[in-house]
Amino acid sequence: MSYTVQKLANISGVTVRTLHYYDEVGLLEPSRVKNNGYRFYEEKELLKLQQIMFFRELDFPIVEIKKIMDDPKFDTTAALRDHKKLIEIKKIRLEKLVQTIDKTIKRIQPLQASSGRMTKKETTMKDEELYQSFKEHDKKYAKEAKERWGNTEAYKQSQEKVKKMSKEDMFTMKKNGDELMKEIVANMNKGPESRDVQKLIDRHYNNLRTFYEPNIEMYRGLAQMYVDDPRFTAYFEKYAKGLAVFMRDAMYVYCQNHK
């Protein structure tokens, strides 16, 4: 059975615009295109789209997905098994967060039922348990950041430069960073690979020289941390929903173009 781009969008939940973008970057091309420009997708493309959706669910950037799936050794069945393992790990984390929510509800119920005061006896959750699920996640990436950057010259340079910054310097830096983020948000609809977005990402890369001399390998690691570390993610999400993932994808494209 063949599907038009609209029908595939309907059954998959992926927007027509996204399917067009996948076609443009060579990630998911239709089985055939008629003279009138209509795209048609068949069994092979449907299964490939499912793979892409699994990768996206696991926060893989578009550039990485294409690289993985273009590899001649790519095995769909093996990939599905890997997806299952990673989703099971994610499931465990989400279950812990759900447990934290349940405990928190039990903790605040006596407060709602009483006159607004809660005694220690009524407390069903220790104070530190409010944040335990998040701390476990944060520690992993804090440790990773320290291991990755803690002993590098760049890390030492950034520490020294920050110490020497005046209040005016800090204000200017924050103002410039805020303006850059707003410009990137204004161009998100063009896609991470667009020329306009890549020019802005180049500014972002060069702005790092305020702290240290960057390199592509480090920049690639920073891109992933924008998504992995909830503190980074929260910063970008203040500007626009999905900006953290968009920044990571755009930075990956930048790294690919400058490797």
Structure notes:
This protein has 259 residues and is mainly α. It folds into three domains: 3-74, Orthogonal Bundle (Multidrug-efflux Transporter Regulator, Chain: A, Domain 2), CATH 1.10.1660; 75-130; 152-259, Globin-like (Orthogonal Bundle). The chain is 69% helix and 3% strand. It has twelve helices and three strands. It has a three-stranded antiparallel sheet. Strand 2 and strand 3 form a beta hairpin. The two termini are 42 Å apart.
Quick structural overview:
69% of the residues lie in helices and 3% in strands.
CATH architecture of the largest domain: Orthogonal Bundle
Shape: globular
Instruction: Compute the separation of the termini in Å.
Output: 42 Å
Quaternary structure annotation: single chain
Q: What order do the strands of the largest sheet run in, or round the barrel if closed?
A: 1-3-2
Share of β-strand residues: under 5%
- Uncertain segments of ≥5 residues (pLDDT<50)? 118-123, 137-151
Reported for the largest beta sheet, the result is: 3 strands, antiparallel
Considering the protein shown, what is the CATH homologous superfamily of the largest domain?
Antibiotic binding domain of TipA-like multidrug resistance regulators
Helical content class: 55-70%
Q: Could you give the count of β-strands?
A: 3
* Fold-level CATH name of the largest domain: Globin-like
Quick check: average pLDDT? Answer: 79
Total domain modules: 3
Question: What's the SSE blueprint?
Answer:
Layout: E1 3-4, H1 5-12, H2 16-24, E2 32-33, E3 39-41, H3 43-57, H4 62-70, H5 76-113, H6 132-149, H7 153-164, H8 167-186, H9 195-207, H10 216-228, H11 230-237, H12 243-257
Antiparallel strand pairs: 1-3, 2-3
Helix pairs in contact: 5-6, 8-9, 9-12, 10-11, 10-12
